[in-house]
Amino acid sequence: MRSLMTILSQDEVERIHQATLHLLESTGVRVDSERVVKMLVRQGAKADGSRVRMPREIVRSAIEKVNSGVILAARDPQFSLTLPTVDFSYNATSGYCPFVKDMETGETRNSTASDLKDYAVLCDYLDPVAFFWPIAMPTEEVSPVMEELCALDVSLRNIRKHVQCSCASGAAAQYQIQLATAVAGGEKALRDNPIFSAVASPNTPLIFEKGIAEAMVLLAEAGVPVTPMNVPLAGTTAPATMAGAIAVTNAEQLATLVILKSANPAAPMIYASDTGVADLRSGQVNYDAPEYPLLGAACAQMARYYGLPSCVAHGSSEDRPFQSPAGFERNVLKIVMSQMTRTDLSAWIGSLENAINSSLWDVVLDVEALERAFAYMRKFDVNEDTLALEVISEVGPGGHFLAHKHTNRHFRKELWTKKLEDNFIFQPTSELSHVDRAKERVKEILSSHTVAALDQATLQEMDNILKHARREIIG
Amino acid sequence: MLEEIRKAILEGEEELAEALVNKALEEGIPALEILNKACIPGVEKAGALFEQGDYFLPELIAAGQATKAAMNLLMPRVKGQEGEWKSIAAFVIGTVEGDVHDIGKTIVASMLSASGFDVIDLGIDVPTDKFLEVIKDRKPEFVGLSALLTSTMPKQKAVIEALKAAGLRDKLKVIVGGAPVTEGWAQKIGADGYAADAVAAVKMAKSFIS
Q: Are residue B179 and residue B127 in the same domain, yes or no?
């Protein structure tokens, strides 16, 4: 017994699958890398310049090669994750925000590598953060490649958990793989235990930019799991219909699968989508739209249909801070709704203002809310003991269960016994606001928690890779 | 007849607007009258409905397209006439070099177009030199620079510097936008304004004119 939100019937899943095969075969996708186009043609795709059409046989063959499970390994094996998940979704921070709210002034400013380090240490400490997206970009870096490379470097040094990192070019992929190889202890070690996975995303609708396509191939060859998180927005970059948006999402996911499996039949992939809707008054993404978790549920269902693990990027409301316990609880329910889609992964913690801003204290507040959300996600057994037929018979019509041993034996395990006030966010006796208390908690954790350092030789090797990359890329 | 054309434009019925304009011309209604009494009021009404929240972007864009179709039929006939219609201003727009994000910039361009601006959309990944070349050639009142990556934001500054070097900076207003762009950044690089979305961009451009 557990809560699980689905939106598509089995027939509808099948229909979207068939529609996707048709889309890939007739409309196809644009792949801006000649090298990758050639590789796809060798697999049976039909190319007309950069337009690549994929006959359904090669898509089916890629689906047949889907791995039975995916490991998201961690620098410290106790934090390694095996997908698909059994009980809960694994949650991570939101990613790549160019801004951060300053701890001291509260003002929004450009984020730096030093902010990213603080986030990594904080999330190393917080248990509900199961894996890590580099939430703050090192914006002091002048090139996109160095930004992505430094994001991985800072993360690997400062958090023992799995790192899922953006990778948008062949150069970024090449250096990121080098860094991770150094930390994992060799190519085979990285392949067996990929300590990082890469977010390399198609550009909706239906475009694989040169850098993205070439990164995908390199990552696949190295055995690094690829998370092609596309962001179709119904109304602007996707049809203004739910089914149409899901079809575009699915086409891009399957096209990625074909690319990865063409490069390496054993390549691991996570079905990853941030499909949402546009606010058709402004054209901006609307992360608070009611369709957003519904589309997440659809993506999770399509992923399960193919046997792929899935990842979405929604959780908290973007509307913060919470003014009252009721506001906090409403946010908990929003997280619950998102977690009920039962995707394997979700990256959202600490995100503000449609994922371009973040704060350390919002990470703490989100983690607190997430722990409350887990209450709604619990699994309950249905068996002889829990059905309690004998107990019901003993009590009989009109009696009560308060005094029964069965009640005493079960209620603490089965029923939620905490009050809403049982968290540090709302303490009526404290003069501090919940934001101030969250900030205090951040400071406590950052001043007391240390992350075990990588060994000296590895750090040296990482330094060398960065130095080399900097010289090659910037000159 | 004029009312029907106005309605077709307001409702974004491109083919219908074209057919009605052709019919009106056949019936001998002067092109300038069709323009001023049907097309302009139609598209202006669409803009007003959008501003008050009753119209959404797809409806506004459809009205803009219907207007454009009608204008294509009318403009050759009104050229040089007394009271000839003129756009509010010319607006060059593009996403800066190294940046391939399209949709935000396109929405701003559509909205400007629907609001009566003559929009010259240079597309994405536009080199600084290209901006300069087009600005020299078309002499627009505005240039809009879009950047969606922190690493391409400096290109907005590069365009402004290039305009200065070419002695063109005070000839036009520079408006910047894009997810990571802020008011503070706009000031820092010497832009004339920062627009958070399409509606803000149109309002800002109009405020500079009046």
A: yes
pLDDT for B83 equals: 62
Domain end point (choices B20, B48, B79):
B79
pLDDT band (50, 70, 90) for residue B77: confident
pLDDT of residue B90: 93
Cα A247 to Cα A21, A23, A200, A232, A467: the distances in Å are: 10, 8, 20, 10, 43
In the predicted structure, residue B172 carries a pLDDT above the cut 90: yes
Q: At what angle do helices A210-222 and A242-263 cross, to 10 degrees?
A: 50
Range of the domain at B73: 2-79
Residues of B with CB under 8 A from a CB of A: 50, 53, 56-58, 98, 100, 103-104, 107, 149-151, 154, 179-180, 182, 197-199
**0.90 surpassed by pTM:** no
pLDDT band at B145 (very low <50, low <70, confident <90, very high): very high
Interface test with A, best of B125, B151, B152, B185 (most A CBs within 10 A): B151
pLDDT in tens, A403-434: 999 999 999 889 988 766 677 777 767 778 88
Last residue of a domain, one of B79, B114, B144: B79
Of residues B115, B38, B44, the one with CA closest to residue B70 = B38
Chain A residues touching residue B154 (CB < 8 angstroms): 142
Mean pLDDT, chain B, whole residue set: 90
Same domain for B26 and B52, yes or no, is yes
User: CB A113: neighbour CB atoms within 10 A?
Assistant: 18
Are residue B195 and residue B106 in the same domain, yes or no?
A: yes
* CA torsion, ordered A180, A184, A189, A191, to nearest 10 deg: -30
Same domain, B42 and B109: no
**pLDDT mean across residues, chain A:** 93
Q: Is the peptide bond before A325 cis (omega within 30 degrees of 0)?
A: no
Residue B165 has pLDDT above 80, yes or no: yes
Task: Check whether residue B34 and residue B70 sit in a common domain.
Answer: yes
Q: Which of A98, A99, A209 sits opposite B100 (nearest CB)?
A: A209
Residues B127 and B32 in one domain: no
CA–CA min distance B163, chain A (Å): 23
Same domain, B158 and B108: yes
CB-closest option in A110, A278, A281 to B53: A281
